[in-house]
Fold this sequence. Notes:
This protein is α+β, with helices and mostly antiparallel strands. The chain has two domains: about 1-115, no CATH class; about 120-174, no CATH class. It contains four helices and five strands. A hairpin with a 2-residue loop joins strand 3 and strand 4. Helix 3 crosses helix 4 (about 155-174). It starts with a strand and ends with a helix. About 15% of the residues are buried. The model has no long low-confidence stretch (mean pLDDT about 85).
Amino acid sequence: xxxxxxxxxxxxxxxxxxxxxxxxxxxxxxxxxxxxxxxxxxxxxxxxxxxxxxxxxxxxxxxxxxxxxxxxxxxxxxxxxxxxxxxxxxxxxxxxxxxxxxxxxxxxxxxxxxxxxxxxxxxxxxxxxxxxxxxxxxxxxxxxxxxxxxxxxxxxxxxxxxxxxxxxxxxxxx
Length: 174
């Protein structure tokens, strides 16, 4: 199985040291992009550095490093920075595809956990795994309930009609 995983400087110091060295040697492929977000233009830059070791203790595990910057519209300073590693062969032609994939993966995870925390599932960071594993069992049951809800929301006409009715009655109350 291939991977595209987020990488943060504090968690991967050896990797990011290699990134700095590659940048100093100009061993970087760069794509500049301008996109629209809401009503504003967002200028960005995506960089690719190939064949870095993932960590110091496993020098033979080689990855391609992808990072994306977004710049503040007024100051031109970096406002957001994202970085990923992958074992897949990434070319300059498909750098933006992988960058969007990395961003989407984060968004899916973030929105899923937000739903679990704030929409009745009562999931919170206090789900420790305990000595007898009860918390783990309860967490897995909650994930299963969430999965069933998602399948019903996507494919069950009765469930979809009920959601529509609930949302329209909430809007009428406001």
